[in-house]
Amino acid sequence: MNRSIEILKILRTGMQSMVSEEPNIQIHYTRIFNFSERRVSLRMEVLGEDSLSVPMGRVDVVEMSSDNGKTSCNCTLTELQTGQEQRLVLRLKNKSQREQECEKVFSFFRTILSISEKKPLDGGFSSTRGAHGNSAND
Questions:
Q1: Which residues of 7-33 are buried (b: 16+ CB within 10 A; e: fewer)?
Q2: What Cα–Cα distance (Å) separates residue 138 from each residue in 1, 30, 123?
Q3: What's the rounded Cα separation, in Å, for the pair 2 and 71?
Q4: Distance of alpha carbon 48 from alpha carbon 135, whole angstroms
Q5: What global pTM score does this model have?
Q6: 13 near 124, Cβ under 8 Å?
Q7: Which end of the chain is more exposed for a tag (fewer CB within 10 A), N or C?
Q8: Rounded distance between C-alpha atoms, residue 84 and residue 3, angstroms
């Protein structure tokens, strides 16, 4: 599950970077562990204009072992308002492949949030994540 947690941290940092220039979008995050299914989830809620949280989406990550020692993760993206789901297998062999795979996740949530097709500032891949990557809400 360690790799799943790492993936969610990267995705959360990328999401925060993606909405950093959107003044009307503030996202609250909740990490959920399901040890019996070896799944880690990140639930996201958008803070609305009336200061009420509205469910936005969820990312479920299940780590898969492989014969060659390289880790892959099954990832389910869910839009909570409509129930629309997208399933991905994130292959994470190296940094550039990790960036390409995570971009698929960002694209799904850009559509939900109606954000233009721009990449996150650092995509969550910077080695210096700063306060966003180490938030107390983790």
A1: bbbbbbbbbbbbbeeeeebebebeeee
A2: 15, 7, 18
A3: 11
A4: 21
A5: 0.74
A6: yes
A7: C
A8: 25
Question: Are 73 and 63 spatial neighbours (Cβ–Cβ below 8 Å)?
Answer: yes
Do 31 and 11 contact (CB within 8 A), yes or no?
no
Q: How far is CA 137 from the centre of its chain?
A: 14
Of the candidates 109, 69, 68, 102, the one whose C-alpha atom is nearest the C-alpha of residue 88 is: 102
Kindly state the tokens that stand for 121. 């500032």
5-61 pLDDT, tens digit per residue, is 888 888 888 888 888 878 778 899 999 999 988 899 999 999 867 778 889 999 999
Residues contacting 126, CB < 8 A, separation 6+: none
The DSSP bridge partners found for residue 63 are 73
Name the pairing type of β-strands 85-91 and 27-34: unpaired
Strand ranges across the sheet with 27-34: 27-34, 39-47, 53-64, 72-79, 85-91
Structure confidence by residue, pLDDT tens digits, 96-125:
777 777 788 888 888 888 887 655 444 544
Q: Three-state DSSP class for 59?
A: strand
Yes or no: say if 29 and 137 are a contact pair by the CB < 8 Å rule. Answer: yes
